[in-house]
Design goal:
heterodimer, A: about 290 residues, alpha+beta, Enolase-like, domain 1, 2 domains, five-stranded antiparallel β-sheet, B: globular, FAD (chain A)
Amino acid sequence: MKAPAFEYHDPTTLAEAIALLCRLENARPLAGGQSLMPMLNMRFVQPDHVVDLNRIAELSGIRVLPDGALEIGAMTRQRDIERDARVAQACPLMVEALAQVGHRQTRNRGTIGGSLCHMDPAAELPLVCAAVDAVVRIAGPGGEREIPFAEFPLGYMTPAVGPDELLVGLHVPAAPKGQGHAFLEFARRHGDFAIVAVAVLLDPGPDGRVARASVALGGVGPAPLRLAEAEALLRGTAVEDDAIARALATTASLDPMEDALVPGWYRRHLAGVLLGRALGIARERMA
Amino acid sequence: MSERRITLAVNGQRHDITVPVRRSLADALRQDCGLTGTHLGCEHGVCGACTVLVDGRSARACLMLAVQAENLAITTVEGLAPDAAMLHPLQQAFANNHALQCGFCTPGMLTTLVELLAENPSPSAAEVRVAISGNLCRCTGYETIVAATLEAAAVMRGEAA
């Protein structure tokens, strides 16, 4: 349970870090270390070089834009986001989800960028980003590019970040006035990755009915899954019980992943139960 | 193997040590600084035994490299008591309430709970349970740990326990 031997680099600027990633073979960026360090200790990964991002000040911090949206640096600690009043204002869904990310000791070190790039299929933060339509910024030798979060997962635990690129931050749109939100998950123990997690956003229109719904599931597919059909069924409704029932019916066609511990049918069942509860909570919070 | 000469500030004391860059902070504390109060259980961030305070915030010492701890203030269980004759109120409450049996999880429990009490001087039992949800006690002595924490909180607030 000791990390394999590697060379250690601790650049202090983003440009320096990118240059190292371009130059070095088999290098891994190290963010908060709450996933990579266990993987090193268990020797699931054996990089020749570790490029530590913790000394790059420009990668962390939270900024509020004039329209109320958030710019969050990739190296911002999860605990700092959880406790930031500006995040509670602009994206209460994220704060609600963060309380279920690991434990306080891991959130004190763990970063939002690390969580997004590790991209466990049941992780909370990628699910929030999928639900709120976040935009991620990725830097490489050619400069920076922005992509919608929907294009960020390429597959199971695979983010759209090249070997000489780094996720540098994300843009989180401000929750519109009156938005109802809910984040729920089921895990065997507090702090575990969820078996299934669900994030729901309901934006009311001028008539008080749902103008836009966002329904996202974690732990069901290889990456966060948006339920476009359920979202369409909720639009224009007042989230009456029968509207919720119609939205829930769409989970019947889910084909969740299966593993040795959790059968697919159970994940499908949980998706329905949690989504029903989350829609009820979000409905109460919609104003 | 790649090594680095670093200075760690642990419990207010300087330690000039040379470590392989892959060495965890927990191993450096134990092997290079001689501070064996920090215990290593799982070595992959699950059990919480190695929890130390990094700039006042709890962190798994098995999930940090020693080289990352340069210029940060580390507090281990050895640094909690004000002096050799007196325990920290939380340590005293652990002793009063039989909140340790084998003692293996205790250093991680204490550092985690010191952070909680610094932030929240009047936690509920439920809040204490959430705070230690990342610390495993295989003697399963959680009830007495929660009781000790509530007693320590009262003492630290200046109320008679």
